[in-house]
Amino acid sequence: MEALILPELLDTRYSVAFSDLLKKQEDGFLLDGGSVARVGGLCFQLLVSAFTTAQALNVPFEIRNVSEGMKENLLLLGGDFLLQGAGEA
Amino acid sequence: MSTEEFTDDMDAIRQIFFDECDEQLALLEEELTTLGEELENGEKINTIFRCVHSIKGGAAAFGMEELVKFSHLFESVLDLFRSGTHSVTNDSVSTFLKCKDALFDIVAAFKNGGGDCEVAPDTISELESYLHSETSEPEQAPEDAEMDDIFGMAFAPVKIAIDAPIEQNFSITLTVTPEFYERGDDVRNILIALEGLGQLQVKVDTDRVPLIGDIFPEQSYLTWKLLLVTQKSQVDIEEIFEWSGDDLQATITLASENVDDAPAPLPVAVEEKTDPQVRKSVDRKDSATVRVDIQRIDKLVDLIGELVINQGAIQSQMRRNKVHGDSVLGNVVTAQEQLIHELQENVITMRAYPIKTVFQKLGRVVRETARLTEKQVRLVLEGEDTEVDRSILEKLSDPLTHMVRNAIDHGIESPQVRAQAGKDPEGLLRLRAFQRSGRIIVEIQDDGAGLDPDRIYEKAIEKKIIERGQRLDRDEIYSLIFEPGFSTVAEVTDVSGRGVGMDVVKQSLQQINGRIFISSAKGKGTTFSISLPFTLSVIEGIIFKAEGQDFVIPVNNVLETIIFDSRKAFHIGEGKYGYPYRDGYLSVIYASDIIGASSDGLNQKICFVIENENEEKLAFIVDKIIDHSRFVVKNLEDNYRKIACFSTATILGDGNVAFILDVEFLFGELLKKRESSLEERV
């Protein structure tokens, strides 16, 4: 499974494209957060949806290489559960 | 939504933010200029803080880092004043005004497409000196105080000295609408701001989030339940949500320490428990307004103007076809005319602004001018809610600014001179606006030295404006100050006295159909009265015929209409006549004179007794009266040069153009030529 490299800004502008990309992930969700500096509410919601989907379908969900910025933002938004098992950059 | 649509929407949202900034900056200016004048400054400081905070909040949403950075610094200093650590002084107000200017400049820079706008170093130093003087006090900021980080910019922690700070737990529930994201904001910004107030626990409710295959990426499914442990008040928390309007639903209640106990996200259910002040801040639907581009309103005014002209055309055709006003068609047309009239009045009112927007800027002008001239001046504003058409208001600011400066620089005496004259060392400057006879009157009144007619007369001779021996009454002498190049001050000051100004003031006011009058008493003060139309778009007038042409005279100037008996007119010189009126005589002006016709005017039958703002009267003789109606004003100068005796023009129902008479011109230019002859005869 190839990792989806996330961009620097997971903001509102990116939400539609991000949704399309996540919908194409058939075998699970392997994401690389090394470049991420900011996570906005809508993209955070997509990550939550991907996480929920992975649990429902029993497929993997993992954010690898989590940047400090991404970690801070996910914690701020209440998404600590998304970081379970995540490897830091 | 395509990228292009998103960009368009973002541009529109940015424009709304800039409009909001303009409003906040205007409010800031208003509050700052009156800060320190009252014993109780607390509420003013709170308002000022909120203005800066709102600008910062919006700027953060749009990534305007320079604006966020400076407003944060300003806000930090304001917080020291808000908490009572510092007291308001003239120096601090001066610093705040500089900061307001700096905010204005930064906003303008972003508005114009860039953010490169450096704040003057001395302004930054002045702000930092307040922070340093605070931190140098014995009580130190907590060692573990974290740096507030917005866009990676670090700000020094500011300790707020509050007696016995009490920590409270606030439970906050946040739900956001898709519109909240569409207009460029993000829940992340809200959480960062809340985190800045204290310890924040965040729990997100994900129950409504669909699986990835079913999700709509621009919908909002999440609800956040927060627990904020803070020393700040509920009002401070509310301020964070101020810029979000109805797109973010927030309920704030005092809570227990566990975030799980936060109330369910049902705003209606918790309303009763919520502090009424919170509802006032968050629920704005009761006082909802719609922001409309002024160009759209201008367009609407123009279109209604065309409608009025069309209405005139229908009535004209009815007259031509002998359709009576009491016929079925006549009644329908009359009803439509009333509706159009009402529509027109309403739309014109939409374009009216309170004169307050101009007055509040003058508060600062007074403060600065008084400082430069080392005079003490108390400004009194009256009638700030008087509404004036926007097109007039825009052109009123500069003349008023100059007149206020003049009143302080030339009118009000120094404290020493005033004390010697037995006056209060503090001069009084009163700005007053009110409506009279369908016009707006703005008065600038000072209790200074008053105008000195002898000095003005001598100065006018010296400046070669008049010749020695020329007979002028007191009002004519006063009006010499409006002549180009006139100035009675010996020394050019930073404030005024460059010999230009009052002539420009008069010209500027004439451009908006304004007139200016002076009354003055030596040693007691001077009052300048400016008379302005409510709008430049419509005029109520009487259409008359002279020498076969149609003209309009504003109805406000017509005192009465009488049959003209040419036998009673007496000849007082070549082409000059007087006419008996009540117990006296009126100068006569024939309409044929103003259009340059060769007629001697003796065949004209109708006499308008017209009156100007100074209650001067004259007889204006025309051929016949056609109608009394409202006319849409068309500016001549857009396409043609100004014609001396006509202010503007209008289009009549039959499509013909009729000129609208400039009544002041009759009293000014034409009457002046006749007065001397009439006086000799009488």
TrEMBL record, chain A:
This is Chemotaxis protein CheX.
Automatic annotation (TrEMBL), chain B:
Residues 18-45 form a coiled coil. Residues 538-672 form the CheW-like domain. One of its GO terms (molecular function) is ATP binding. Keywords: ATP-binding, Chemotaxis, Coiled coil, Kinase, Nucleotide-binding, Phosphoprotein, Transferase, Two-component regulatory system. The modification Phosphohistidine is found at residue 53. It comes from the Bacteria. Pfam families: CheW, H-kinase_dim, HATPase_c, Hpt. The keyword Translocase does not apply. One of its GO terms (biological process) is chemotaxis. GO terms for cellular component: cytoplasm. Residues 6-110 form the HPt domain. Its EC number is 2.7.13.3. Residues 337-536 form the Histidine kinase domain. SUPFAM superfamilies: ATPase domain of HSP90 chaperone/DNA topoisomerase II/histidine kinase, CheW-like, Histidine-containing phosphotransfer domain, HPT domain, Homodimeric domain of signal transducing histidine kinase. PROSITE patterns: CHEW, HIS_KIN, HPT. Gene3D superfamilies: Histidine kinase CheA-like, homodimeric domain, Histidine kinase-like ATPase, C-terminal domain, HPT domain, SH3 Domains. It catalyses: ATP + protein L-histidine = ADP + protein N-phospho-L-histidine. The keyword Nucleotide-binding applies. Involved in the transmission of sensory signals from the chemoreceptors to the flagellar motors. CheA is autophosphorylated; it can transfer its phosphate group to either CheB or CheY. This is Chemotaxis protein CheA. It comes from Gluconobacter albidus. The gene is cheA1.
